[in-house]
Amino acid sequence: MLLSVDRVSKTYAGGRPVLREVSLTLDAGQTLALTGESGSGKSTLLNLIGALDVADAGEIRLGDTAYAGLDDAGRAALRRDRVALVFQQFNLIPSLTAARNLEFHARLAGRRDAAWLDRLAERLGLGDLLSRHPEDLSGGQQQRVAIGRALAVRPALLLADEPTGNLDETASTSVLDLMLELVRESGTALLLVTHSEAIAARLDRRAHLAGGRIA
Ligand SMILES: Nc1ncnc2c1ncn2[C@@H]1O[C@H](COP(=O)(O)OP(=O)(O)OP(=O)(O)O)[C@@H](O)[C@H]1O
Ligand SMILES: [Mg+2]
Q: Where in this chain does the record put each ABC transporter domain (predicted)?
């Protein structure tokens, strides 16, 4: 088992409980769709698994790493080396070309693999776009760079929070197709938040959040 989320709870200060003893597991290379109404806690759960925030109770493990034992530096190392995130907002760095954005995290992690970067650029159809800056790319093209950037470190786990939410249907389908192909090729497990039944149906498993619990 790659990821284990065991009875994790989260309440924001002054709010009502968002997650109540949520549990789920994910095997290496597996893909899981996470659905649920707006406000059901999907992003909250992703932020906890992505070590961007800390659970109030319960336990999260990635491989043999228990999150509860990590300090800030340990969480930063986890995000740098093993868990990658793709958001609805592409979050590319405006001053850098697509090529520099693509390799940005891999460079930071000291794991820049030129052959894998070439392969990603080719598979993502970025060949002719690498010298452009984000403002000169379409939304779908920017998201393809963001997905390539996330996969460039060959993370064990990719967390994607409505990654095609800002794209039209055609771009959304092609970006999703590429993401699924590439996680399979690199053996990366995927936890994908989506509102689309059609997308959820294409992944190995699905989980639904409602009332703070996984159904
Ligand atoms: N930083 C925060 N501080 C306080 N409350 C928050 C914070 N982040 C989220 N919430 C609240 O927690 C609940 C769950 O939010 P979350 O963003 O996890 O939902 P979601 O399922 O991702 O929704 P959506 O589909 O709209 O993205 C909401 O009621 C939200 O207002
Ligand atoms: Mg959300």
A: 3-215
As a whole number, mean pLDDT of residues 12-27 equals: 97
Residue 17: pLDDT band (50, 70, 90) is very high
**Ramachandran angles phi, psi of 47, nearest 5°:** -65, -35
For residue 211 and ligand 1, the question of a CB distance below 6 A is answered with no
Q: Which amino acid is at 39?
A: G
Ligand 1 centroid to residue 44 C-alpha, Å: 6
For residue 42, give the nearest of 161, 150, 147, 158 by alpha carbon. Answer: 161
Q: Is 14 in the pocket of ligand 1 (CB under 6 A)?
A: no
Give the tens place of pLDDT for each residue, 30-63: 999 999 999 999 999 999 999 999 999 999 999 9
Distance 194 CA to ligand 2 centre (A): 9
Q: Given the DSSP bridges, would you call strands 157-161 and 83-86 parallel, antiparallel or unpaired?
A: parallel
* Protein fold of 29-52+71-204: Rossmann fold (3.40.50)
pLDDT for residue 166: 86
Q: Residue 114 is encoded by which pair of tokens?
A: 């030129």
163-173: pLDDT as tens digits: 998 888 888 88
CB of residue 36 inside a 6 A radius of ligand 1: yes
Query: Ligand 1 center to residue 128 CA distance, Å?
Result: 38
Per-residue pLDDT reduced to its tens digit, 171-196 = 888 889 999 999 999 999 999 999 88
Q: What is the dihedral of CA 42, 45, 51, 54, to 10 degrees?
A: 130
